[in-house]
Design brief:
Pfam families: DegT_DnrJ_EryC1. The chain is an alpha/beta fold. The protein folds into two domains: about 5-10 and about 190-225 and about 255-375, Alpha-Beta Complex (Aspartate Aminotransferase, domain 1), CATH 3.90.1150; about 15-175, Type I PLP-dependent aspartate aminotransferase-like (Major domain) (Aspartate Aminotransferase, domain 2), CATH 3.40.640. The chain contains eleven helices and 13 strands. The protein has helices at about 40-50, 70-75, 95-100, 120-130, 190-205, 205-225, 245-255, 260-275, 300-310, 330-340, 350-375, and strands at about 5, 35, 60, 80-85, 105-110, 130-135, 145, 150, 155-160, 170-175, 295, 310-315, 340-345. The strands form four sheets. The protein has a seven-stranded mixed β-sheet, with helices on both faces. Helix 1 packs parallel to helix 2, helix 5 crosses helix 6 and helix 8 packs parallel to helix 11 (about 350-375). The longest helix is centred in the C-terminal third of the chain and has 27 residues, at about 350-375. The radius of gyration is 20 Å and the shape is globular. The two termini are about 30 Å apart. The model has no long low-confidence stretch (mean pLDDT about 95). The structure holds pyridoxal-5'-phosphate. Pyridoxal-5'-phosphate (PLP) binds near residues 41 and 68.
């Protein structure tokens, strides 16, 4: 059966070249303290260097993280200390308090999946202890708290542009005295633009979608031969600017309705599958800009495999923690890593594609449940 292929990454419409550039730019792109690099990890590295942080300065970082932000901090020369998150994915105040020593300088918080943390509270917590607040909004570009953008509450805000729009790269930082502009050679970004166009076509055509779904595992298998699970954390050259294609296309893609469209798609899936959603993501705050729709399962890998059969390329993100994390000391974070995966809610999805996702989640979870029941009764 032919199947359109839907992934959590925003796709790039073919007609983007004919669109007008927007005169409106969302925060932080409109801010004078904003600098754009190729990746958010470059932005993090540059922020630490600009603040003059060194090995004597300790950054409190969450045990639930991607890994590349941790690597960027370490490469920038700072020391880190891990804190545990609560069941609601907030920093655990008890864990934080126990980690405070005189050389702690920064609290690093992550706005998971575009859902804002209580940044006002954490800024106050930092102010009371004379600490800096880093807001990692890599998954939360366009998210707001009471009409104020995330990233404006901390001393540093970091954003990924390509997670929200179909551009090839782009990581922004905003701070009062921003780093110098990136100086390394400009990359074109054309290959990644091509791939995002293919993804757009695969979302609309069953033939291309099925081809894509068939070819991808083969490419993955080839890549797996030399697989290094920590490669995705590598910093690369921190002075890399955003690609030429990102700079050309971004202003044609930004739109004031993006966050609301993502929220609408999220609400649609929440109405169908509330019982599968992990607690921190059960109620959608007004200012959230969901990056994806999270699903919790004891059999995440099996459900993901089934979803692919229905054309849905879900993502079990953050399975591998940064190697510096003593994983056994952080059971709550590890439970999120093993059990939570995500399906798409991006703004390019059509109504019929949302139905495809909802139906696929329904069938996949039921099929895995039945398979497990049968296995148990044998
Ligand atoms: C929470 C978080 N911070 C930072 C980053 C770094 O983003 P980039 O891949 O653009 O360097 C990521 C990437 O996935 C992330 O998830």
């Amino acid at each position: 059966m032919l199947s359109r292929r839907l992934s959590i990454w925003p796709t790039l419409p073919l007609n983007v070249y004919f669109r007008e550039s927007s005169s409106w730019l969302p925060y932080p792109l409109s801010d004078s303290g904003c600098r754009v690099f190729s990746r958010a990890r470059h932005a993090i590295w540059n922020a630490c260097r600009t603040l003059g942080l060194g090995s004597k300065d300790i950054v409190l970082v969450p045990a639930y993280h991607h890994g590349c932000e941790i690597e960027a901090l370490l490469q920038a020369g700072v020391s880190i200390r891990y804190y545990e998150v609560t069941e609601l994915l907030e920093p655990d105040p008890v864990s934080l308090q126990s980690l405070l020593t005189p050389n702690v300088r920064v609290l690093y918080i992550i706005h998971y999946l575009g859902f804002p943390q209580n940044a006002v509270r954490w800024r106050q917590w930092c102010d009371e202890r004379n600490l800096l607040l880093f807001e990692d909004a890599a998954q939360a570009f366009l998210a707001e708290i009471n009409n104020r953008p995330v990233g404006t509450f901390g001393h540093v805000g970091v954003f990924c542009l390509y997670k929200t729009y179909g551009v090839p790269d782009g990581g922004a930082v905003t701070m009062k005295a921003p780093p110098a502009r990136p100086t390394a050679a400009l990359q074109s970004g054309r290959w990644r633009v091509f791939k995002r166009h293919v993804n757009w076509v695969a979302e609309r055509s069953g033939v291309i979608g099925s081809l894509h779904l068939g070819i991808k595992p083969m490419v993955k298998l080839l890549k797996k031969k030399n697989h290094n699970p920590h490669k995705e954390f590598e910093l690369g050259d921190p002075f890399t600017p955003p690609s030429a294609m990102t700079m050309r296309l971004l202003s044609k893609l930004v739109d004031r309705t993006t966050a609301e469209r993502r929220r609408e798609n999220y609400r649609f899936l929440l109405d169908h599958h509330r019982h599968l959603v992990p607690r921190p993501f059960l109620s959608l705050p007004e200012g959230a800009c969901p990056f994806a729709f999270p699903i919790e399962s004891n059999n995440a890998d099996d459900v993901l495999k089934k979803l692919r059969r229905f054309g849905i390329e879900g993502l079990l993100f953050w399975r591998n923690a940064h190697p510096s994390l003593p994983a056994n000391d952080f059971p709550l974070s590890m439970a999120f890593r093993n059990r939570v995966f995500a399906v798409p809610v991006h703004q390019e999805l059509t109504q019929s594609e949302l139905y495809q996702i909802a139906e696929a989640v329904h069938l996949s979870t039921i099929q895995v449940k039945h398979k497990n029941q049968i296995a148990r009764t044998k």
